[in-house]
Design goal:
With 427 residues, the chain is of the alpha/beta class. The protein contains 17 helices and 15 strands. It has an eight-stranded parallel barrel with strand order 4-5-6-7-11-12-13-14, surrounded by eight helices. A three-stranded antiparallel β-sheet has the order 8-10-9.
């Protein structure tokens, strides 16, 4: 073979595509089911990571706390309790929606649900579970079914805390997932205690503008051919095929009417709306709040744990800090996710307008490390860090953080940081 110098081009990637064709647009298919995807190709140190939290010299709210306590306040005096999309929570943290994600033979979804329930942390269950693993009405579906995840959460939930939100996508709508959950006697306890909600999935961070994608055995996928697009991306002789779903079609009126339909059909359930990191994310959030959504969740492009074409994480969608900048002062409960795993990044998102932050990939990794206590320990550390930085900023609730607490430095102009205004909500 003649040697060819590819100056300025990613030669290894080009040669891989020449060998594998369309399959090279995705991660290695042999790693499917054994690896959490979605974090490949992202620039190291995005603006939210590079931004610094900047404590003030003068701290009038600390003085108020001192007078109230009769002593100098400590970081342990920070109250992190809040209301997240209509649910009471001890921390401004929820488990962000992930669907049928599994790693090898371990059902991480159930492990996360069990720990999140024990902690009283609100949790969203992602789409695609019913088409892939079933609802749970027959014995063969029980282990990884939607109902098993719901039960794992509910059976450990303490009184007065937490809430479960079931997401539905275009394909889930065909399976009538919300109707199944709302009418199931086994969810009655959640419904009667006001701790059941439904989330309309408009999009997600890892692949905005695309629907769900999974890799399925060829024989299993054949039964889904009438509802999903199937492609021989990995070659005609490979036993696996790519299964893709529609992203759904939305206009402002369609979104408005869908939320109203949810409120009318499921009057006792909370209504959440999940938005992708789209250029009109602020307009979509305003429409959702005006239509009566209890919470709007937004994934930055950093979010996502599922099967995704490699170019999307690196080159498609707005990063979380830009989503928060465009939304500005929220008109309702704003929930933010996108590579949240520690207290400082969480504090920055809260300061920029979020009511709470979502753990997606981080929750899965923690459960993979320890299915019984990994998420619990992760949240213990995050809560400690969040109390430390909140106290350092001179305030004693997470809702008191403001954009003034965040400095983006000389690489980002001052106008990129939302300025504090009246109506900045954290509830």
């Amino acid at each position: 073979m003649t040697a060819l110098h590819a100056a300025g081009l990613p030669e290894a990637a080009i040669r891989a595509r020449a060998r594998s064709g369309a399959a090279a647009a995705f991660p290695d298919v042999d790693s499917y089911g054994h690896t959490l995807f979605g974090d490949e190709g992202r620039p190291v140190g995005d603006p939210l990571d590079r931004a610094r939290l900047v404590p003030p010299v003068f701290v009038p709210q600390r003085l108020e706390k001192l007078i109230d306590l009769g002593r100098e306040p400590l970081f342990s005096d920070v109250d992190l309790s809040t209301v997240i999309g209509g649910f009471s929570a001890a921390l401004p943290v929820y488990v962000s929606a992930f669907g049928s994600t599994q790693v090898a033979s371990r059902d991480l979804g159930t492990a996360v649900a069990r720990q999140a329930g024990r902690l009283g942390v609100p949790m969203a269950i992602g789409e695609n579970i019913v088409p892939v693993s079933g609802y749970g009405r027959v014995e063969t579906e029980e282990q990884r079914s939607l109902l098993r995840r719901i039960e794992a959460y509910a059976e450990h939930l303490p009184d007065g805390l937490g809430g479960l939100v079931v997401q539905q996508s275009t394909e889930d709508a065909d399976a009538e997932v919300w109707n199944l959950v709302y009418s199931d006697p086994r969810t009655r306890g959640l419904l009667e205690s006001g701790r059941l909600g439904f989330e309309l999935k408009v999009g997600q961070g890892a692949k905005p503008g695309l629907g769900g994608m999974t890799v399925l055995p060829r024989g299993e996928a054949a039964a889904l051919a009438d509802r999903f697009q199937l492609q021989d991306v990995f070659g005609p002789d490979d036993p696996r095929v790519l299964r893709s779903s529609s992203p759904g079609t939305f206009t402002d009126e369609i979104l408005r009417q869908q939320i109203r339909l949810m409120r009318n059909n499921f009057p006792r359930a909370r209504v959440w709306v999940k938005l992708p990191p789209a250029r009109d994310v602020a307009e979509a959030a305003r429409v959702a709040w005006a239509a009566g959504a209890d919470a709007v969740t937004v994934d930055g492009a950093e979010g996502g744990s599922g099967w995704v074409p490699g170019l999307f994480p690196a080159q498609v969608g707005l990063p979380l800090h830009e989503c928060l900048h465009r939304i500005g002062a929220p008109q309702g409960c704003l929930l933010a996710s996108g590579r949240i795993w520690e207290g400082a990044r969480a504090a920055k998102a809260l300061a920029l307008g979020a009511t709470a932050v979502g753990l997606g990939r981080a929750a899965l990794l923690a459960a993979d490390e320890d299915p019984e206590a990994g998420l619990t320990r992760l949240l213990e550390c995050l809560a400690l860090e969040l109390r430390l930085v909140t106290s350092a900023l001179g305030v004693y609730t997470s809702g008191a953080l403001t954009p003034e607490d965040v400095w983006f430095g000389p690489t980002t102009t001052a106008e990129r940081v939302p300025q504090p205004t009246e109506g900045h909500l954290h509830g």
